Amino acid sequence: MDIRQLEYFVQAARMKSFTRAAESLYITQPTISKMIRNMEVELEADLFYREGKSVRLTDAGEILFTKAQNIVESFASLSSELDNLRNLEQGHIRIGLPPMVGASFFPSVIGQFHKRYPQVTIRLHEDGAKKVEEDVETGLLDIGMVVLPVDTAKLHCFTFVEEKLNLILPMGHRLAKAELVPLSELAEEEFVLFREDFTLHDRIITECVKAGFQPKVIYESSQWDLISKMVAAGMGIALLPETICRDMDRSRLVVIPLTDPVIPWQIAMAWRRDRYLSFAAREWISFAKGLLRTVPK
C-alpha cells in the first residue's frame, strides 16, 4: 500500500462517491475503483459498501479512514515544506469563496496577488459559506471566506467585513415608504432566500423564529442578482447585506434598514489552526490582510 492509494481512499471516503472523488483528483472512475479494490484484497477486508452511485465506509473502512487521514495530512505537510525549501515563490492555493463575497471583494485582491506572484496558482471554489467552512475544516480548502460566527477552536480567522442585512422590497409594497422596519412586521410576507448551504439561510430563519414567526419561503437561490430580480417582480421580499444592496437597481427596488433586531453580516478569512500552511497560502493571507479592510475584534 502506498501514499497514493491512501489519498484516493481518503478522498472517496470524504466525498462518499468514487465518481466525485475521481473528478476531484483528475483521474478516471475505473482507476480509483481498481485501486481501492486492490487495497481491499491486500487488507482482506471490504472498505466500502457500494450503494448505487454512492459509497459508505464499512467498519474496517472507518478504522482505516481514521489512520489514513493522519498519514495523508502528514505526507502533504512534508511535501509542502520541502516545496517551500526548493522554491519559496511557487505554490498552489485552494480558496473557498461564497458568490457574494467573491464578486464584491476579491477580483482586485486576486489580480494584484497574481501580478506579484505569477508562479503561484490559485484554484477558486465557489460555494455557500457553510460549505466553505466545512471544506476548510476537512482540509479540502486551504483558506475560505466564511460568515461569522465560526468554531474558533478549529479555525484562525480575521474579519474584514462587518455589515448588517437590509430589507429589499418591490416598488409599491405596503412598507416601501417606511424609514425602518422591525422584523416582526414581516410575519405575513413571502421570503426569497439563499439556499440551505448559505449561512444567511439559517440565520434569517432563526431570527424570524425568535421574532415569533416561521418565515414563508417561496424560493431559494444561490445568486443574489436573481433574488433581487424576483423581489423586483413582486414575488416576495428578501434580506440582503449592505454591500449587495449598493449594487442593486434602485429604480425597481426599495432598500430599507431592518431593525428589532439588526441582523449582522460579518465576513472573515479562515484557515485551520492545526494544519500546516504552505508559503503561498501564508503569503496570500498576509497580502490580503494588507488590502482588505480589517475590522477590529
From TrEMBL:
Pfam families hit by this protein: HTH_1, LysR_substrate
HTH lysR-type domain segment(s): 1-58
Keywords for the protein's UniProt record, in alphabetical order: DNA-binding, Transcription, Transcription regulation
InterPro entries: HTH-type_LysR_regulators, LysR_HTH_N, LysR_subst-bd, WH-like_DNA-bd_sf, WH_DNA-bd_sf
Record has Transcription as a keyword: yes
Protein family according to the UniProt entry: Belongs to the LysR transcriptional regulatory family.
NCBIfam families, per database record: trans_act_CidR
Annotated protein name in UniProt: HTH-type transcriptional regulator GltC
Organism: Paenibacillus pseudetheri
Taxonomic lineage from the root: Bacteria, Bacillati, Bacillota, Bacilli, Bacillales
Name of the encoding gene: gltC_1
